[in-house]
Please model this.
Amino acid sequence: MKNKPLILITNDDGIHAKGIASLVEAMKDFGDLVVISANESYSGMSHAITVKTPLYLKDMGTKNGVRYYMTNGTPVDCVKLALHTVLDRYPDYIVSGINHGSNSSTSVHYSGTMGAAREGALNGIPSLGFSLLTYEPDADFSSCYQIVKVVFEDVLKNGLETGVYLNVNIPYTDKIKGIKYCRQGKGKWVEEFLERTDPRGRKYFWLTGHFENLEPNATDTDEYYLLNNYASVVPCTIDATNIDSLKKNKNYEL
Amino acid sequence: MKNKPLILITNDDGIHAKGIASLVEAMKDFGDLVVISANESYSGMSHAITVKTPLYLKDMGTKNGVRYYMTNGTPVDCVKLALHTVLDRYPDYIVSGINHGSNSSTSVHYSGTMGAAREGALNGIPSLGFSLLTYEPDADFSSCYQIVKVVFEDVLKNGLETGVYLNVNIPYTDKIKGIKYCRQGKGKWVEEFLERTDPRGRKYFWLTGHFENLEPNATDTDEYYLLNNYASVVPCTIDATNIDSLKKNKNYEL
Model:
């Protein structure tokens, strides 16, 4: 009898988020699930690790055959704790999300959800992150289930290249047309800071902003497909090298 | 008369670190410098942004013609505050570091120093991060000056491709042979958690580990050159797409 795969589930919206409960629901038939997530939201934490404060880990018990652990760490801390402290062996897969809000285009760099998936890839584990394009805490995630299943079944069947992880974004509509594997669109956050004054008279700032698609005419990017009601899958690499830059073959002897 | 370039300096070891003072020293003749950094160390903060606590900004005045600002934010917050609140215009260059400790290979993903450089690239600004391969707070950074100058002069002269930022690592020796532009080596952190018990009887964990070069026989990686007393320059891209994965041309209609 073949053992079921061991699948680690995590996110950056915290253990109480609807998104992670929805991911557990979508993934429950694929293997033995272990969930590790934080006591609160760690959005925007990217690939951060906690080095200055101690990490706590709480066994939250088993519900419907799924084991739950809670930490005070970032999504990447969650993965590291799972690999080195919680699990008896490395998981076969790591699946992160479902994030409340888009992580398409260059948002992949800010996302804690995608940090967890990247950390999986850095450890040689096939890893995926899912995000739904709405920030509503009580959003309807049911349209995600089919996307999660189709994309994960493809990974089960075909695997992922070493060092590659998937950034999957899902439009918030019940009319999803399909799933497109595509490149990361060029885009940036257009930001400003709200300026306030605290009761002690000190100025303080809140970051605010909106995402801008810098390739509005491209028809092969995640941004394009999401706008056209497709789920987008960007295969991402842990190798940040821009190989083209090396063709200039610049070196200096000192 | 041509205006001097405006150069933003930041780091992740905090405003009082020797590394950032050394970077100011190395960069002072290249343009008008503005320094923005944090009140304490933000190592391991990657590309994190602060979304749950307010950011404060303190004008620390001018020393030797260089303007200093201090924040309570991450390195990426520092860049965003500088672009949107501190500076009258976008800087011509962003230079981050000099980090106390290596950011070679896959450490680029954890590094706050490199987060700041990536944030510059995301905003279309030629950006570089420098790291010295020692964690000594009082390390001798004088061997870095020539490397900083040669690499920055090359950027001044030739520019950087849009979306590309440089990850420069410098061996801790006074016998540096030269500077090699090269690819990011494959490597990972081999980690464990130190387990302790706090005075209230709760277990807690500290992350600890060491870096492992997964390509010990490669002769074209940053790891190889650093071991051989060269400074390494990896041109990194903000485009995380693994283009090879897309050749399979997988799509699903629903």
In short: Chain B has six helices and twelve strands.
